[in-house]
Amino acid sequence: MSENFTPNERTRVVREPHRGVYDRETIDKILDEGFVCHVGFSVDGQPYVIPTMYARVGDAIYFHGSAASRMLRGAGAGIPVCVTVTLVDGLVLARSVFNHSMNYRSVVALGRAALVDAPVEKIAALRAFTEKILPGRWNDARQPNEKELKATSILRLPLEASAKIRSGPVEDDAEDYALGVWAGIVPMRLEAGAPMRDERCDAKIPVPEYAAEYRR
After folding, report:
1. Model's pTM, two decimal places?
2. How far apart are alpha carbons 72 and 152 in whole angstroms?
3. Which of 7, 103, 116 is nearest to 55 (CA)?
4. In sequence order, what DSSP letters do the residues of 115-129 get, joined into one string?
5. Beta strand spans in the chain (E)
6. pLDDT at 61
7. Residue range 4-17: average pLDDT?
């Protein structure tokens, strides 16, 4: 596993290049923190962008869905895809509307996704999806049966990626700092609430610690 991604024509950040990040640790951390990716692809000249759950395992991103999905049928045939993950860290309120922004971390990965056929790799990917949501859940819940595995397609995309990050304070035009307008950052974060028991769940079953104590 290399420590950095070497930027190329496809992955180099062009707009605001000073925000481009190519080190592996930062990119992996963003991918591991996110829950949803957006997969972009084109079929017969029509572009599509589909949100889906994903997990990073080593040097690859795995994403999945119904075997009947247009996205997975197309991507599984080897069409080029673009996978993006974005985390919003704050609203940047400047003195001028033009300079409003967001603090964010994002990753763009490009390549051709391959359909996962090997049962061992397929199960490992499904386990990674489950453990990404809640570590410890895979061993508690019923695991996929043969029918469910056949109905699910999983794709592997080798990582060819770059990150783009905006952090820090407001950046206003020099003449605007004298304006009597409040400026600053509104921090944003994803926060878990208290678990809510399913109405058909036996009240005698205790809430698992990983759910009761879940934190982001």
Report:
1. 0.89
2. 10
3. 116
4. E---HHHHHHHHHHH
5. 20-21, 36-43, 46-57, 60-66, 80-93, 101-112, 114-115, 152-158, 161-166, 184-187
6. 96
7. 84
